[in-house]
Task: inverse folding
């Protein structure tokens, strides 16, 4: 029988192997402030990113109840089932439940407002053994929903979530002995921000910019870059908000509501790697994967995608630092999956590089679904000793993004995109365990936006495949593909 958060058994396999039997109730709700979610193009369809979990149905004793705001296009469901040797049997163990309400409001809140849908889910679980709720992120609302469903949660208690805020991240890092950038945390007003920026300016007279981060900002959209070269009232300082339409009056209200931190902006960091980590109920900490993040937007603050694995030069150091962070969180009682983002910094002439923690995301993240898809589609095994995904002893690498878009894709159906990629010879080839897998296809019709994970035997091959896909999509539009937020 499945036991939520159970160890995988062989000490090497990551999160998906924890779900061998039982019933996974997958809740892909992005439970963040609506004002922040609305800034992300196609956010209505981000619930589809975890449909890669359908591939877990290759395990005959597992059922999945997948919750969404709106029904998923049948072509998208068929696409994921098509990766399995027996799609028909898997389909019988897949239950898709949609609330029937669109918009950026978090799915969990919609479910709590629709007791008839919650009752339908309870009916599906009536004879289920070993069922548990796997949320994208945890807030008190997820625990209320779990209570209504009578399920345990594969994630931290709501009172521990602040450990993964921007303020909590800096404090946990210090306890773990992991470096952070110069700055201050626990700031709750524009006056406190101004004071922290002034002190940073005095400590770092050569620093050109600082970043203000909302405690619960998502995907870089809660960040603001402040010019430190000209001391003046903060409201008048040259500021670049990473989210369109933001201003000091609106941003200040969010600082007061959720708190913020101030940090020096690192000068030309070499990379921004990320680690996925999991804590089992007994406190065992396991690194699931490492990635190099692809960042863009103002000042490189916005997450656009990732490359797997992280560069070998610092992959091991990233894993060790993530383990140290995980041990501190485990001491606090955290269980479940989470991510840790870092910066690789030049340590001075001839001194190599240094690692600094950027933030902890006490939840699933933007690197979760590419890794799950790559691992489950290829049948690969994650080797924690070298940080590689191995298929028959040979590594697999990938480039992934949620941000492929082109004007000509607006109005496309998922089926059309799937056929176009296959027709171009770019689709995933199970005989070689390489090729392109697609996600976020529901965002095509309205936004001309989709996601992809391009899998190859080496980083160069994955990048070449990604560029070929981008060129294909550009060809159906008037312009080159634009990367939207």
Result:
């Amino acid at each position: 029988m499945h036991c939520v958060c159970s160890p995988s058994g062989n000490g090497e396999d990551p999160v998906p192997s924890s779900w061998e039997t039982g019933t996974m109730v997958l809740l892909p709700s992005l439970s963040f402030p609506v004002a922040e979610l609305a800034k992300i193009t196609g956010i209505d369809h981000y619930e589809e990113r975890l449909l890669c979990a359908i591939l877990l149905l290759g395990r005959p004793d597992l059922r999945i109840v997948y919750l969404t705001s709106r029904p998923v296009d049948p072509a998208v469901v068929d696409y994921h089932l098509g990766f399995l040797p027996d799609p028909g049997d898997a389909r019988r163990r897949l239950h898709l439940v949609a609330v029937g309400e669109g918009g950026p409001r978090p799915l969990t809140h919609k479910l709590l407002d629709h007791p008839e849908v919650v009752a339908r889910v309870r009916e599906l679980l009536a004879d289920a053994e070993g069922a548990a709720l796997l949320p994208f992120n945890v807030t008190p609302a997820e625990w209320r929903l779990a209570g209504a469903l009578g399920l345990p949660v594969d994630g931290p208690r709501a009172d521990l979530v602040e450990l993964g805020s921007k303020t909590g991240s800096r404090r946990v890092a210090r306890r773990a002995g992991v470096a952070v950038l110069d700055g201050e945390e626990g700031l709750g007003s524009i006056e406190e921000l101004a004071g922290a920026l002034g002190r940073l300016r005095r400590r770092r007279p050569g620093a050109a910019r600082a970043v203000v981060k909302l405690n619960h900002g998502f995907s870089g959209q809660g960040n603001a870059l402040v010019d430190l070269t000209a001391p003046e009232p903060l409201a008048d300082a040259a500021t670049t908000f990473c989210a369109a339409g933001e201003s000091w009056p609106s941003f200040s209200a969010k600082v007061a509501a959720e708190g913020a931190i101030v940090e020096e902006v690192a000068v030309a960091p070499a990379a921004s790697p990320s680690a996925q980590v999991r804590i089992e109920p007994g406190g065992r900490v396991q690194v699931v994967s490492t990635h190099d993040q692809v960042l863009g937007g103002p000042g490189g603050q916005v997450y656009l995608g990732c490359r797997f694995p992280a560069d070998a030069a610092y992959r091991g150091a990233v894993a060790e630092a993530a383990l140290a962070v995980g041990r501190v969180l485990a001491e606090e009682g955290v269980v479940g999956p989470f991510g840790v983002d870092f910066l690789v910094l030049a340590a001075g002439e001839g001194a190599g590089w240094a690692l600094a923690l950027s933030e902890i995301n006490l939840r699933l993240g933007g690197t979760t679904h590419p890794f799950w898809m790559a691992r489950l589609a290829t049948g690969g095994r994650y080797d924690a000793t070298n940080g590689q995904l191995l298929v028959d002893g040979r590594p697999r690498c990938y480039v992934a993004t949620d941000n492929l878009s082109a004007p000509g894709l607006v109005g496309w159906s998922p089926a059309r995109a799937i056929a176009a990629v296959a027709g171009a010879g770019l689709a995933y080839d199970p005989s070689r365990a390489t090729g392109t897998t697609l996600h976020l296809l529901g965002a095509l019709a309205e936004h001309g936006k989709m996601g992809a994970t391009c899998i190859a035997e080496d980083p160069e091959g994955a990048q070449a495949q990604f560029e070929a896909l981008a060129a294909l999509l550009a060809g159906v539009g008037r312009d080159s593909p634009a990367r939207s937020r």
Remarks:
- Residues 182-264 form one domain.
- The two ends are 41 Å apart (CA to CA).
- Residues 1-17, 478-485 have pLDDT under 50 and may be disordered.
